[in-house]
Specification:
By secondary structure, the chain is α+β, with helices and mostly antiparallel strands. The protein folds into three domains: 246 residues, Cathepsin B, Chain A; 170 residues; 48 residues, no CATH class. Helix content is 18%, strand content 29%. The chain has ten helices and 26 strands. The longest helix is centred in the N-terminal third of the chain and has 16 residues.
Length: 524
């Protein structure tokens, strides 16, 4: 069964909207479940950098880089300020007219930031950037590259339905990224540090992104009373917020926001997220991915509880030892299996008996999931990483994140993907189909999308070119092994396959066998 829907993206973080009365679910305000303290501050722990002043509509860039800074600091990593400007520039429309459809002075989205971090496009330390004038750049692909020191591997989505989990993630990772509806003149108390938008508020507001860096269960509800709204929360309790409006208020730029604020952690401004894990980026590893923008949507068109999603990768270089697989899903509670799928005539093999299961687990939370594969060596020079999602236990659809075009309520593009054929495949009902063909035939969609499946591959060059039988000796036996492989008398995999590609062109043929023989002749 297929589900057809019209997509309207979440509200941007700087567009004035007429307030609408949305009923929020009752939420817990205590922290006894995890024995978390009644109050906590990452500021006191030193897990934050200084409060900064945003340029205009780029609060989302400041909040997300601050969240990354806190994740690093809370893990004991010596951390400099990260550049919101680099993220802002990277998220501008590309020179080909694709990517996020926005300019430097336009509002942005949490998905811009999370895609940037999860695709290892950032964050970038300000100290690693040369002096430059942001306004001198026009396109997002002009953003300086190759400067990322730490790449995000996992991110957890958070909602107002579980404030204990929100506190838990602040406690573990220093802070979380979230958003709220902002009307300072009506919702900020006279003390300039206590903010609360009542549930029945119907005035105008702007979306505003911040980092939550602490909490106090006993913060008095009376402090949120304003003369304009005349209301206060029903209960005590507030989160400590690192804002990006400078340091001029009595708390040096920090504010308190009530647990009961109308739009804090609301789905209207999703995603709110914590950075669960990251790792150092260096020359010994590579992030294999078919997109750089991260998930913009959840592929939920096929209403089945068991689906297999695939991304095809090239493993012709020395990065063929799979260390981790990263995928984005909101199918929380589902079981998953990760496979390596070899090629057959240039596309993923349909016979599942030829696949290799390399890991499995349970989707513990919505967001970006990272599975430690424990160094699986890819046996062939190309193939696919497949994620089988089984949501039978939850009774919900088996979904996966997708990098897919988006439009706003007016039908204008917010994001245009750069998907091409041969990148992503969908397997169901015994058939493997290029997902762009699926989009065209089922949704009449020419743009389609790319699945969010990534792999961290480690460099493995501990073999000798030409030593096909891997005996540590380069001799005529190796040339014979190549000839036997070419004649389909012998199979080669892994290091042997790479050693046989003597000239490194990704194709094993008589040229490689001849080259080996010539080298041996010169040695003799």
């Amino acid at each position: 069964m297929y589900i057809m829907k019209r997509k309207i993206f979440k509200y941007p973080f700087a567009v004035l909207l007429a307030g609408a009365v949305l009923l929020a679910a009752a939420v817990p305000v205590g922290a006894a479940e995890d024995n978390l303290p009644e109050s906590y501050s990452s500021v006191e722990k030193g897990y934050v950098t200084e409060v900064k002043t945003q340029h205009g509509l780029d609060c989302w860039a400041y909040a997300s880089t601050a969240t990354m800074e806190s994740a690093l600091l809370s893990a004991g990593v010596e951390t400099d300020n990260m550049s919101p400007d680099h993220l802002n520039l990277w998220s501008v429309t590309r020179s080909n007219g694709k990517g996020w459809i926005r300019g430097l002075s336009s509002s942005g989205y949490g998905s811009c930031a999370l895609g940037y971090l999860a695709s290892w496009q950032g964050g970038v330390f300000t100290s690693d950037l040369e002096d430059y004038t942001l306004s001198d750049y026009i396109y997002g692909d002009e953003a300086p590259e190759g400067l990322v020191r730490y790449g995000v591997t996992s991110a957890r989505f958070l909602t107002k339905d579980d404030l204990t989990d929100v506190k838990r993630q602040i406690f573990r990772h220093g802070g979380i990224y979230t958003s709220l509806a902002w009307n300072q003149s009506m919702c900020m108390a006279k003390d300039s540090v206590s903010y609360y938008m009542p549930e029945n508020f119907t005035g105008s507001y702007q979306g505003h992104a911040v980092e939550l860096v602490g909490w106090d269960d006993n913060y008095p509800a009376e402090k949120f009373m304003t003369n304009l709204t005349g209301e206060k929360p029903q209960n005590n309790g507030a989160f400590l917020v690192k804002n990006s409006h400078g340091r001029s208020n009595p708390l040096g730029g920090y504010i308190w926001i009530s647990y009961e604020d109308k739009y804090l952690l609301h789905s209207r401004y999703a995603p709110s997220f914590s950075i669960e894990s990251f790792e150092e980026v260096n020359d010994s590893k590579k992030l294999l991915q078919n997109e750089i923008y991260g998930a913009t949507y959840e592929f939920d068109y096929v209403a089945e509880n068991n689906l297999i999603y695939m991304n095809h990768f090239d493993f012709t270089d020395d990065f063929f030892k799979i260390d981790k697989v990263i995928f984005k899903t909101e199918a929380q509670g589902s079981e998953y299996i990760i496979y390596f799928v070899p090629d057959e005539n240039g596309v993923p093999a349909n016979d599942k008996s030829e696949w290799t299961a390399i890991s499995s687990g349970t989707v513990d939370f919505k967001g970006y999931i990272c599975d430690d594969i424990n160094d699986f060596e890819v046996p062939y020079k190309s193939g696919s990483i497949a994620i089988e999602i089984n949501s039978t236990a939850t009774g919900k659809t088996a979904t996966l994140g997708v990098d897919e075009w988006l439009v706003d309520g007016s039908g204008d593009y917010v994001f245009i993907n750069e998907s091409v054929k041969g990148q992503s495949y969908l397997a169901h009902d015994g058939v493997i189909e290029d997902v762009l063909d699926w989009y065209k035939s089922n949704n009449n969609d020419d743009l389609g999308g790319t699945f969010i499946i990534k792999a961290i591959a480690l460099k493995s060059n501990d073999y000798i070119k030409g030593d096909v039988n891997l005996d540590g000796i380069f001799n005529i036996k190796d040339a014979t092994e190549i000839q036997r492989y070419i004649a389909h008398l012998h199979n080669l995999e892994g290091r042997a396959l790479r050693a046989a590609d003597f000239n490194g062109d990704g194709i094993i043929n008589i040229t490689d066998a001849t080259a080996v023989q010539r080298v041996l002749a010169r040695q003799n």
